[in-house]
Amino acid sequence: MTPAQSLSNSESIAYVPRAANPLRLETLVLLRWLAIAGQSASILVVHFVLGFDLPLAACATVIAASVLLNLGLLIRFGPAHRPGSRLGFIQLAYDCLQLGSLLYLTGGLGNPFALLLLAPVSVSASALPSRETVLLASLVALIATLIALFHLPLPWDPAAPFTPPPFYLLGMWVSLLCGVGFIAAYTNKVAHEARQLVDALTVTELALSRQQQLSALDGLAAAAAHELGTPLATIALAAKEMRREVAEGELAEDMDLILEQVARCRAILGKLRNLKSAQADIFEKVSVSDVIAELAKPHEHAASSMGKTISMSKSEFGGEEPVILRNVALLYGLGNLIENAVQFAREYITISAGWDARRVVITIADDGPGFPSELLSRLGEPYLTTRFRDKGEADPRGPDGAGGLGLGVFIAKTLLERTGATLRFFNARANGHACVEISWPREALNDADSEPWP
Asked: Where would you find the membrane-spanning parts of this chain (predicted)?
């Protein structure tokens, strides 16, 4: 089995899900300590430095509640605990209510610190599910509405009291609600894409890990065959000597059976030894045309059974044909793209290699429906979906085409780019004919002896 074959189906890779909540309790507690410090400093400066009257007892009580909450959470769970979405939502909802209480005591929306109501929403959008974020944003909108209507006077000079104009308060209320909606949507989108990228890279690493495990098993099998060869030869020799001394009969039949099974074991060990030589061949340097021929060979039978033809060509524009190391990243990346082309082609698949003194280019093309034009610039992104998948219709490019999860293309693109390649996806004709052009600087392939996956 070649690396291209063993890694050709990324969907079969066992997937390890990420943690349900990446936010640690220590992070929430630390943010709350910062809020406590900032709130305490602000109240002390306003009251004792600026000389404005404040309900100190009520403000101190609200801040003390946060102190007690932090201490209770640390004692109950410990800083390394990862709260579920429900507990995380409850904590952030408390932070909103606590800040809303302080704003009620210090002037409502006229207080410039009302902007801090956006902070819990941004934390929720980056770490909690969308449902909790929507609920928290709704709570902030309710708090903003209440403190706009009901609040104690804004701390100010008693000799010249200041009351914010109603239109100013209305503007603050509208801007706060717009900010909540924008931050919640934007932060949630960015965090979601980041989590998808992490998931896709995890699958990529699992693909290479599986191939490394298979390679290690090949080596272990060959070593075991070598170690078992000597005792098996001893058994065979002893069995032959005993067979000569045993007369024909039931015991002789048993000795013949032993010799037959020993011969069978030798044949099996011979196959295991061949794995070692095959494994060595995988990592030798070969020409580019030999590499694409090897990668196409496992798919020729499948293509022929579907009435499709794979053709290969090479074009020399200067310089000798590149000789490269067939590392796992290169084999899997190209092999997966060839497999996609075979799957989506109508009648033929063309694999061409060209080179000059500076660059090496491999082009994989098929006569299938092509890539959706609206997604050409996004091909290679993880978990890319289209209207076919959203509407439950059949995607013309198959279950893992541009309309599927897109992990196969993402993994192939990621691995090939790590070898120094640049990929370009395009349609050769207006009605389809997908093409993938993979190009390397010649010196990048000359350095292919390096580890393909750092």
From this structure: 28-49, 55-75, 111-128, 135-154, 166-186
The answer to whether 334 and 438 are in contact (CB under 8 A) is yes
- Classify burial at 83, counting beta carbons within 10 Å of its beta carbon; exposed 0-12, middle 13-18, buried 19 or more: buried
Residues 6+ positions from 449 with CB-CB distance below 8 Å: 325
Q: Which residues pair with 62 in a beta bridge?
A: none
Taking alpha carbons only, the member of 424, 406, 395, 296 closest to residue 349 is 296
Query: Is the domain of 247 the same as that of 295?
Result: no
Residue 271 binned pLDDT confidence (cut-offs 50, 70, 90): low
Q: Is residue 17, in this structure, part of any structural domain at all?
A: no
Picking from 118, 122, 124, the residue whose alpha carbon sits closest to that of residue 140 is 118
Q: Mapping DSSP to helix (H, G, I), strand (E, B) and coil, where does residue 248 land?
A: coil
Do the Cβ atoms of 342 and 299 come closer than 8 Å?
Answer: yes
Q: How many CB atoms lie within 10 A of CB 57?
A: 8
Beta-ladder partners of 285: 325
Domain boundary among 258, 282, 306: 282
Q: Is residue 251 part of a domain?
A: yes
235 shares its domain with 152: no
- Who's near 147: CB < 8 A, 6+ residues apart? 100, 103, 104, 108, 109, 114
Q: How far is CA 124 from CA 64, 120, 121, 160, in A?
A: 23, 6, 5, 41
pLDDT digits (tens, 9 = 90+) for 38-81: 999 999 998 888 888 889 999 999 999 999 999 999 999 888 88
Of 229, 253, 282, the residue that ends a domain is 282
Q: Give the domain extent around 420.
A: 285-446
Q: Where are the beta strands (DSSP E) in 236-372?
A: 285-287, 309-316, 323-325, 348-355, 359-366
Q: Domain count for the chain, please give it.
A: 3
Residue 416 lies in a domain: yes
Helices and strands in the chain: count of H runs, count of E runs: 13, 7
316 within 8 A of 355, measured Cβ to Cβ:
yes
Same-domain check for residues 347 and 269: no
Cβ–Cβ under 8 Å, residues 35 and 243: no
Q: What is the pLDDT of residues 395-417, one digit of tens each?
A: 444 434 443 445 678 878 888 88
